[in-house]
Amino acid sequence: VTNGRLHAKNWIPNPSSTGVLKIDGPEVANFEDQVKLFQAGEKDEVEFLRFRLRQGVYGQRQPDRQMIRVKIPFGGLTADQMDVLGEAADKYAPLKKGHITTRENVQYHHVPLEETTDLLRMIGDAGLSTREACGNTVRNVVAAPSAGVSKDEVFDVTPYAAAYARYFLRHPTTQNMPRKSKTAFSGSEKDEAMVLMHDVGMVARIENGRRGFKIVLGGGLSTSPMMAQTLRDFVPVEDFIKHCEAA
């Protein structure tokens, strides 16, 4: 987990924001209402499953226990946010710990269903979100651990990764995709973020003094691993999100 206060000015959208992603208070309140309906037997189980996955809440095999996945776009956290993540683990995770995933999320296991809303509010107050961390959505956007400080990078990709994450969050076209989509940003051809194993990948480039990205598509692992193929060798930074959306 990198990019604390040093680079916060680059990726927090405005001075009144506390994080990369927009926090929607009514959305959390609605989640609380839906949990109560489900527990009262007034909400269809399959419908509730789809709903809670979009909120970053996974059911576990243990009855009424959930795994909560917090998105950390490009691994960027402030010191205050790290404190809140620790407090959330102490208060809501029975094992008093969280897990940092390979895709720069933080997960809490065995959280009682009735306590999930309180956890979401706690991290939301710190500018952190679980929205679309699960399900067939645009998942957490990752970047190289050294993004913003690497001597090899062409430029710092974190502001662009943040813009990408904000654009696709709650986007109407990404709420019920056929499958999930995973994205990575690398600051140079060294590709420390391993974009070639992602559905969508951006590699920083400069041509004729302009910042831009090489865009690759179609990478993946699992049971049918494949390397991503180049969609565009160079797209200016002001156009790369449009190309990704069209693809």
TrEMBL record:
A Pfam family the protein falls into: NIR_SIR_ferr
Classification via InterPro entries: NIR_SIR_4Fe-4S, NiRdtase/SiRdtase_haem-b_fer, Nit/Sulf_reduc_fer-like_dom_sf, NO2/SO3_Rdtase_4Fe4S_dom, NO2/SO3_Rdtase_4Fe4S_sf
SUPFAM superfamilies per the UniProt record, alphabetical: Nitrite and sulphite reductase 4Fe-4S domain-like, Nitrite/Sulfite reductase N-terminal domain-like
Keywords: 4Fe-4S, Heme, Iron, Iron-sulfur, Metal-binding, Oxidoreductase
Name of the molecule in the record: Nitrite/Sulfite reductase ferredoxin-like domain-containing protein
Residue ranges occupied by any Nitrite/sulphite reductase 4Fe-4S domain in the UniProt entry: 134-246
Domain Nitrite/Sulfite reductase ferredoxin-like: 58-123
An example molecular function term from Gene Ontology annotations: metal ion binding
Bilayer-crossing regions: none
